[in-house]
């Protein structure tokens, strides 16, 4: 069992290791991550406002003794790891491809918006033409 602060990498670590967890969210997206893990059945969320030794012990004991947390964690891990290519192999593939092209990918790998000016990128030119027409007609 892991008792962690549910930042994105910690949730991923708990998911990949198929370990039931106790989350104590502190701020930002951690509340969502903790409740998502609880909804999936492999974690328990512990409020920072209820932090006492007794409450923490009871929550951890509940997660350790209830086997459904462990089975749900194992089930979620199989879903999470069910990929066409292992993440390490995928990363090596992209690095090798980058090295093959001398550190910069060929042009067709990049979106065309990179080379556009700021007005065109934000489509402001499309809005400026009707606005200009309205201004001219109103005078």
UniProtKB/TrEMBL annotation:
The keyword Transmembrane helix applies. It comes from the Eukaryota. GO terms for molecular function: glucuronosyltransferase activity. The keyword Transmembrane helix applies. InterPro entries: UDP-glycosyltransferase, UDP_glucos_trans. It catalyses: glucuronate acceptor + UDP-alpha-D-glucuronate = acceptor beta-D-glucuronoside + UDP + H(+). Its EC number is 2.4.1.17. Keywords: Glycosyltransferase, Membrane, Signal, Transferase, Transmembrane, Transmembrane helix. The chain crosses the membrane at residues 118-137. Belongs to the UDP-glycosyltransferase family. Signal peptide: none annotated. It holds the Pfam family UDPGT. This is glucuronosyltransferase.
């Amino acid at each position: 069992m892991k008792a962690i602060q549910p930042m994105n990498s910690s949730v991923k670590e708990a998911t990949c290791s198929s370990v039931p967890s106790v989350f104590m969210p502190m701020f930002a997206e951690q509340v969502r991550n903790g409740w998502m893990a609880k909804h999936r059945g492999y974690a328990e969320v512990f409020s920072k406002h209820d932090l006492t030794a007794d409450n923490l012990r009871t929550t951890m004991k509940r997660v350790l003794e209830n086997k459904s947390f462990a089975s749900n964690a194992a089930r979620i891990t199989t879903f999470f790891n069910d990929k066409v290519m292992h993440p390490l192999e995928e990363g090596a593939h992209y690095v090798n491809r980058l090295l093959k092209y001398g550190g910069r990918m060929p042009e067709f790998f990049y979106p065309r918006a990179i080379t556009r000016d700021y007005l065109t990128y934000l489509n402001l030119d499309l809005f400026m033409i009707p606005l200009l027409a309205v201004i001219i007609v109103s005078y």
